[in-house]
Specification:
It is globular and about 55 Å long. A hairpin with a 2-residue loop joins β4 and β5 (70-73). Helix content is 27%, strand content 36%. The strands form two sheets. Strands 1-2-6-3 form a four-stranded antiparallel beta sheet. Strands 4-5 form a two-stranded antiparallel sheet. With 97 residues, it is α+β, with helices and mostly antiparallel strands. The termini are far apart. It is built from three helices and six strands, in the order αβαβαββββ.
Length: 97
């Protein structure tokens, strides 16, 4: 991956993600399906200027959806849980939620 923004697509703002952010200093992002843990770590460190302790990823496969007699699949996507090192300042991307 050449660009930081091609690796990290968006932060995932859910109740579970915000609880992990507050309790465990872990951030949750939707990332490129082809990105590996090392690329995600480098992208977060470069974009937010923090130190990353670990990265865990999960693959999600698209479910089948129907509209009348037509059917298709939602796209596959990947989620990354990024744990920051102790003493790092937390990134504020969900202040108004």
């Amino acid at each position: 991956m050449k660009n930081v923004f091609s690796v990290i697509k968006r932060p995932i703002i859910t109740e579970k993600g915000l609880d992990k952010k507050e309790d465990e200093s872990t951030l949750c992002f939707e990332v490129n399906v082809h990105a590996n843990k090392r690329e995600v770590k480098e992208a977060v460190e470069k974009l937010f200027k923090v130190k990353v302790a670990s990265v865990n990823t999960s693959n999600f496969y698209g479910k089948q959806r129907r509209r009348g007699r037509y059917s298709g699949f939602k796209p596959d996507w990947k989620k990354a849980y990024v744990k920051l090192k102790a003493g790092e300042k937390m990134i504020e991307y969900a202040e108004n939620v």
